[in-house]
Amino acid sequence: MAAFNDLVFSGVQPTGNLHLGNYLGAVKRFVEMQARDAQCLYCVVDMHAITLWQDPAELKTQIREVTAAFLAAGIDPKRSIVFNQSQVPAHAELAWIFNCVARLGWLNRMTQFKDKAGKDRENASIGLYAYPVLMAADILAYRATHVPVGEDQKQHLELTRDIAQKFNNDFSGSIAAHGHGDAFFPVTEPLIGGPAARVMSLRDGTKKMSKSDPSDNSRINLTDDADAIANKVRKAKTDPEPLPSEVAGLAGRPEADNLVGIFAALKDTTREAVLADYGGGQFSAFKGALVELAVEILAPLGAEMKRLVAEPEHIDAVLFDGAERADAIAAPTLDAVKDIVGFVRRPRLRSV
Ligand code: AQP
């Protein structure tokens, strides 16, 4: 099998209300990956955002806000590549080629499309339907080997793997003839896990914490101040039982499980360790400790985000520099794909 260098890619949509789920399930883990010895690319996926209508002025602000969240959380734009998707044309070009590889039946099974399109499927954009194909292009334009995401993205990553494998099979002769061995694309490894792979709504432990939930009390926004965080945690839905002493006791108690998982993720520990400290106690004491921990971590992050957002020129310069570096990886990959597929193209400036 072909060998691929370790490369990490992930993205966040600039669709407003960046929340604790986005932070614990994704951004915090991006920072952890950066500490390892692999190139990391972190993308503000603005082309994904417009699969649902976005106000143009707000979109610009939200692109800068997600970038600010990356930087405030500890992503170093010199070490990692931070950019917005629409500045690198390879994403859209590769997505078209992958549209011709992916099968309709595969996309028809995507649950996120069903959730987001709702009952009025006929009126959903083609972009919303093809979203997972663009996501495969985002990842494979860099031949990324590892993708840290929340659990909700698992199905999309399986589709990325299917597209990579089908492309490698469909074009195996041409891939070998062009000197790329037996596989051009890696079969990407999803990195999903930890106590906060799926952070749930504070109002309903069976629903994902989400940007688009109409209740602001359902989520902790990364820009919430200490008072707002305290209010939301205190109002978070719980059940009448005390916290269990063992993880098995969280089964069938989605709200308790969620709060314990959030605490564990914020503290970089496990549910077991949290219950060793708080098991048997009432929610009120546990919520007090959770407020303290959440404020300690999120208040400085939110303040730094606000400071950075107030300097849009700096953010734009980071994104532009990141886009140039991302393009330097993606453009030659796309050239190689065009050769493999059989297109006649302009001479290659750089090679993979
Ligand atoms: N609740 C969550 N728990 C853990 N991880 C989550 N992620 C999202 N929600 C949770 C992860 O955050 C990353 C960026 O997500 P996104 O912005 O690309 O889109 P999303 O998943 O559509 O976010 P929302 O909040 O759920 O938005 P809406 O309401 O529009 O659907 C991804 O890695 C995702 O897994």
Report the principal-axis shape. Answer: globular
Strand portion: 5-15%
Specify the CATH architecture of the largest domain.
Answer: 3-Layer(aba) Sandwich
Broad CATH class of the largest domain: Alpha Beta
User: How does the major sheet shape up?
Assistant: 3 strands, parallel
Could you tell me how far the N terminus lies from the C terminus, measured between alpha carbons in angstroms?
18 Å
Structure class: mainly alpha
The fourth-level CATH homologous superfamily of the largest domain is HUPs
Query: What name does the CATH topology of the largest domain carry?
Result: Rossmann fold
User: What is the average of the pLDDT values?
Assistant: 96
- Unique bound compounds: adenosine-5'-tetraphosphate
- In total, the number of strands is 5
Spatial strand sequence of the major β-sheet: 1-2-3
Low-confidence parts, pLDDT < 50 over ≥5 residues? none
- How many whole angstroms does the radius of gyration measure? 21 Å
Q: What percent of residues adopt helix (DSSP H or I)?
A: 40-55%
* Tally of helical runs: 14
**Helix and strand succession?**
EHEHHEHHHHEHHEHHHHH
> What is the domain tally?
2
Q: Descriptors for this entry?
A:
single chain, 352 residues, mainly alpha, Rossmann fold, Tyrosyl-Transfer RNA Synthetase, 2 domains, 3-stranded parallel β-sheet, 14 helices, binds adenosine-5'-tetraphosphate
Verbal overview:
- The structure is a single chain.
- The chain is mainly alpha-helical.
- The chain folds into two domains: 7-197 and 311-341, Rossmann fold (3-Layer(aba) Sandwich), CATH 3.40.50; 216-308, Orthogonal Bundle (Tyrosyl-Transfer RNA Synthetase), CATH 1.10.240.10.
- The chain has helices spanning 20-34, 46-49, 56-73, 90-99, 104-108, 111-117, 126-140, 154-170, 172-177, 226-235, 254-267, 271-278, 283-309, 312-341, and strands at residues 7-12, 39-44, 81-84, 146-148, 189-191.
- Strand 1 (7-12), helix 1 and strand 2 (39-44) form a beta-alpha-beta unit.
- It is globular, with a radius of gyration of 21 Å.
- The protein starts with 6 loop residues before the first strand and ends in an 11-residue tail after the last helix.
- The model has no long low-confidence stretch (mean pLDDT 96).
- Adenosine-5'-tetraphosphate (AQP) is lined by residues 12-13, 15, 21-22, 25-26, 149-150, 152-153, 196, 198-199, 208-212.
